[in-house]
Amino acid sequence: MSDDETKAQLQRGLRIATLILAVLTVDVLGLIHLVHGLEFHDHTAAQFAAFAALTAVLATEAVLVVRRRLWRDGRRLAIAVVLGASALSYLTLPDGMTSTTVDWLFGAANWAGAVVLLDRPFRIFLAFLVTHELLALANLLVFHEVNRAALVRFTTGSVTVFALPLLMAVVAAVLGGIAAEAARAARELELARTAEAAASAAHRRRTQRFAELSGTAVPLLTGLADGSLEPSDPVVQRSCAIEAARMRRLFAETDMVGNPLLHELRHCADVADRKGVEVELDARGQWPTPPVAVRRDLTDAALTALATAGSWARVTVVGSADAVSVSVVADCAEHAVPSPATPDVRIEIFGSGGTVWMEAQWQPS
Amino acid sequence: MATELITAVIVDDHAAIAAGVRYWCEQADPPIGLLDAGDRLASVWTGQGADADVVIFDLELVPGKPDFGELRRLVDSGRRVVVYSQHADNATAIKCIDLGALAYLTKREGPEHLVPAVRAAAEGRGYTAPSLSGALAADDTPDRPRLSPRETEVLRAWFASSSKELVAAKLHITAKTVDTYIARVRVKYASVGRAAGTKSELITRALDDGVITLAELNETVR
Q1: Which end of chain A offers a freer environment for a tag, N or C, measured as fewer CB atoms within 10 Å?
Q2: Options 3.40.50.360, 3.40.50.720, 3.40.190.10, 3.30.565.10; CATH of A217-362
Q3: What's a single GO MF annotation on this record (chain B) (predicted)?
């Protein structure tokens, strides 16, 4: 699971939970209190208008949740509607009824604000809570009789009215932190796994390369080291030249190039070039890229001829959509025909008067 | 004709190339008279340059802009052209042949190909150097002529080995037969595409020499 997915899933869960709490508080508990206290209200129409306003905000949030969208330009309007509905409800409240069950909106408005501001920074939601609280307090102080009972009701009421939505916001902030932490941990784990896979692949490649060289290059090096092979011996020199070319080809195999076959042949040619052999390399046509094993079969004959050429060599590649052939003509000693490791490669060798012509052809079946 | 000195004019902006080609022409037996036009195309059309038997033409007097237009004008006015180019791609080589050049050589190909190419061109015959042979063998354009498997095999072998003796020995044929196969391919190429004086001359000569029959020629067009 990606970082964003983890975070989005947590936030969505919290958003739905908040909406359910808000609907229960406004449309169930709020409605019960409103209907029960209907006889006390002088302006029932105003109270129902406030109720409808809060319900509209919650309905909008429900639509947004279903569509998996966020509040955008409508957010300010929604907060204005919530605060407007609060003001309307408070101003039309009968005397001495503040912070009672008749004052149904006092406990409900903050939840409507919570669904709108849940994904905003904590301080913005706090500012909303304080605004609403001050609105209710101002209403009490200005338009109602301020007595001990009213103040006690306001204070005790505020504990749940203010603290519960606040608690929700704290949970949201904490969950956000946890989500970020979880995402970071997942990312680190993924990085570690990738590094581990890359390291083991590199190790496997090195082991593979070593195994490929160990059959031919290692005995040669061992022989040179323990003195059983003489560097001045032309046979040893020839073997060294072939192994050097083979290593160059091995290193070239992992290069990312457009035409690997030609790239590897150039490396083989370069070994001969360094010995002072005049090498012509020419390619014609287009061909599909053969797999590594096939390329090795194709270049093997050329590699041997190039490494042992006396003074000149001509390497050519002719390709088409269904076949590619590598030819090398050089003044080198005639070698035994190397046996290809892959079934679709055919190698022909032809010698005439000190010139050897080897052709390797790949025709994928 | 055989006793007469063959003359060629070279158009190439590189002095070293012209000097090298002059040396090869002087060393050839019999020697070839060479006129150096430098990069002045006008010298090919006027004075001694206009009388030269063969034009050795550097396709890229302006780097990156192969001058096919000038090649066409030369061929259309009946000149026998050997294109000598640093361009090595198939499309350029085949286009030169289609326009009516008698030979196409890359600058990696030395006197062993340029001298016979000039001699062949002077007689109105084509010369197919290994690089062109490779281009023809790998040609996969839709309007290419139909070649027999043996013809393709000879083209490929000539491209690979650059030695007609080796091709002959490998394919168990004579060197003359190798030449015949290559000549047939050139005749087939001359019979498709754009009409040019040098191309019809090539076909007429091939029919006269029995390199190819009229019936075989008719089958070449796809």
Answers
A1: C
A2: 3.30.565.10
A3: DNA binding
